[in-house]
Amino acid sequence: MDSLQKQTLNPNKHLKEQFVSNLHGSSILEIAALLTIVPLLVLLRYSIGLHCRTDNNGKAISSKKNDDDIVVSRNWKAYTYAISLDFIFIVFPMLLFFTVLSEWVYLGAVLLSLLLLLILSVTAKRSSTALQRAGQSLSFRASVSSYRVALMLITCLCILAVDFTIFPRRYAKTETYGTSLMDLGVGSFVLANAIVSRQARDVSSGNWITGLKATAPLLLLGFIRLVTTSGVDYQVHVTEYGVHWNFFFTLAGISILTSFVNIPAKYCGILGFTVLAGYQTWLVSGLNTYLLSDERGTDIISKNKEGVFSILGYWGMYLLGVHLGYRLFYAKHSNIRSTTSSIARVFLVSLLLWIVTILLDNYVERISRRTCNMPYVTWVLAQDLQALGIFMLSRYIPMNKLSSLEEAIDQNLLATFLLANIFTGMVNLAIDTIFASPVSSLMILSIYAFALSAIIGTVHFSGFRLKFW
To answer: What is the pTM of this model?
Structure first.
């Protein structure tokens, strides 16, 4: 037995699994403050300028604000400088707030908000002039891209940071009920995809066969993850999805259901609410007791009960996201530009969803990511729309545009996620993360974050693109 333990690639597997188990999360307010800080950091980065973009041939185009003019240059040095600034002003502060500055989240949100308001008040006149010259404001799609990139950065930082003691346990995924930063992950991905989907834009997505073909890469990635984690004896938090299930299988399940039940966006809200209402009724009738228990049979469904049954909740969330995307941004009465009225609509819907979330959480069932119940769905919708509304405020910043790192990640979302997973696995197999000191933990996480940013930036500079969701 001792010799077998010595030969394993992950001798502290069970300790690492226990380290992320039986957690109860944080408060909704703290998570909302964290998700306010992230877009504020991005908007403050916009206000600094000194971006660098690439043309269709992959050549770097550096942009520096000079009042209302843009100075353009093409070179690798300018691009690396811009990427470095993005890391310093966006990625590294995010990492600090997720770790060593976690006790200062509320103060950080207030101070960053005041700083942004000060900058906006100073640049208000220039912003109006710039918008008049441009003839339009930053598109809603660009704001969604910013949010999707921020979501990816949060995910990439958290999947490794959670294995270190420097990462607060209240930010790790909850065991049964509760809310945490990492609980937002898969739900936010589902919603972000729904809002900009072809269905939300009322564009034909073909027949069910086309949909199934598009699902194939997700299924392939799901099986690759399953085989590799089993092959290296990697730690798996079974109560997250089940014994064999993972994030990619959930996305694939939603895609398959959507392919078979493909209805116009204006009716998706009704279907989504019906699915969620039926699922929530089933949960409170006893299904939640089964899903949250340690009971597992020998059949494949019982072994993966969390992943299998939660698809109903995530599908309902997807349908509501499609409906909200259509009504808020793509319907005939809507303007897909980030106008003041569209921003106000987003914040209003977010406020209404916050009220619904509080009522459901107190009087129906507590929020549970593990079952993806109705309170969890409305919480994700409220939180994500709030963050999206903040990103849409970028229209008030003169000469705003996606930062260089945002463009790089946006064009390579899949590559970024896969690379982060590879790095996370390598670090965990090479280091006993749960025994690392705070200083060494922060150093490792900083190197990891910078390496990820630098590699994705280099990939984008070379003109490579890997993106299918």
So the answer is: 0.89
